[in-house]
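Private note to self, pasted from the team thread so I don't lose it. C-alpha cells:
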C-alpha cells in the first residue's frame, strides 16, 4: 500500500484548457493554435502523473517534430503550467527545458538584417511610395492591396480592416503612416489597378521588391515580441510554416 507521502506526490494534470484560453486575450487563430498544443499535452498526461520524469518523456516524444514545432509546444506547455500553478490547480510549478537548437549550415546561412527605410517616410510623392508604406506598415501583398477600399481605413480610431477568405483582420495604424497618407483622395483608383501596374509603380519608387519589404514587416514584428501565432494572424496566414525560419 502506498505511503501518505507517495500519494501526495501523485498529481494528475487537470484539464483547464478552456479556462486558460478564456483568460488570455488571444486572437481566434492564436487561440486555435494554443488549443491544439494543449490538447496534445493533455492527451499525453491522460494516464500519467505530472512528474519531472514524465515531462522528460513528453519532451522526448516531441523530438520527432521539427525544432521550431518542439519549441512552440514546450512554450505553450510552460505557460499553461504557470497558469495552473498561479491559480492553485497544481501545487508545484513545472517547467520543461527548451530545446537547444544545433546550428547547421542551413540555419546559419539565413540571417536577414532589419532595415528602417527612412526614405519611405518623406512627404508622399507618388503611388509607389504609398504602396511601399502599405507593405512595410501592414505586411500586405499585392493581392490584398487590390482588395482594399479607402473605407477600410478608420482614421478616427487608427485601424485598418482587411477581410480574406471570410476572416477579418484588424491592424493598428501608426501615426507616422496616418499623417502621410490620410489626405489621399483617389486611393480606390490605385487599389483597382492590375498587379503589373502596382509592381511597376513600386519599382519606380524603390529597388526593393514587395517580397523584400514584406519580409521587413515580419522582422520588425518578431523584434517587437510577437509570437509566431500572433504574427501569422496579423498576416492572415492559415499555417505558421513559412514563418518558422524567423523564430530559429
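Design output:
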Amino acid at each position: 500500500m502506498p505511503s501518505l507521502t507517495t500519494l501526495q506526490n501523485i498529481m494528475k494534470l487537470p484539464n483547464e484548457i478552456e479556462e486558460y484560453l478564456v483568460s488570455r486575450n488571444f486572437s481566434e487563430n492564436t487561440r486555435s493554435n494554443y488549443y491544439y498544443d494543449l490538447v496534445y499535452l493533455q492527451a499525453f498526461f491522460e494516464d500519467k502523473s505530472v512528474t519531472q520524469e514524465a515531462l522528460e518523456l513528453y519532451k522526448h516524444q516531441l523530438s520527432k517534430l521539427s525544432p521550431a514545432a518542439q519549441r512552440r509546444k514546450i512554450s505553450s506547455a510552460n505557460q499553461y503550467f504557470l497558469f495552473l500553478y498561479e491559480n492553485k490547480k497544481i501545487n508545484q510549478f513545472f517547467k520543461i527545458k527548451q530545446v537547444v537548437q544545433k546550428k547547421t549550415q542551413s540555419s546559419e546561412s539565413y540571417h536577414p538584417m532589419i532595415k528602417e527605410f527612412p526614405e519611405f517616410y518623406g512627404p508622399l510623392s507618388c503611388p509607389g511610395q504609398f504602396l511601399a508604406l502599405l507593405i512595410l506598415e501592414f505586411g500586405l501583398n499585392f493581392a490584398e492591396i487590390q482588395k482594399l477600399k479607402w473605407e477600410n481605413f478608420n482614421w478616427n480610431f487608427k485601424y485598418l480592416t482587411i477581410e480574406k477568405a471570410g476572416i477579418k483582420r484588424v491592424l493598428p495604424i501608426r501615426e507616422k503612416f496616418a499623417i502621410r497618407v490620410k489626405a489621399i483622395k483617389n486611393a480606390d483608383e490605385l487599389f483597382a489597378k492590375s498587379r503589373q501596374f502596382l509592381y511597376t509603380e513600386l519599382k519606380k519608387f524603390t529597388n526593393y521588391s514587395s517580397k523584400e519589404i514584406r519580409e521587413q514587416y515580419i522582422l520588425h514584428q518578431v523584434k517587437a515580441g510577437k509570437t509566431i501565432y500572433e504574427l501569422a494572424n496579423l498576416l492572415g496566414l492559415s499555417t505558421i510554416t513559412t514563418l518558422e525560419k524567423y523564430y530559429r
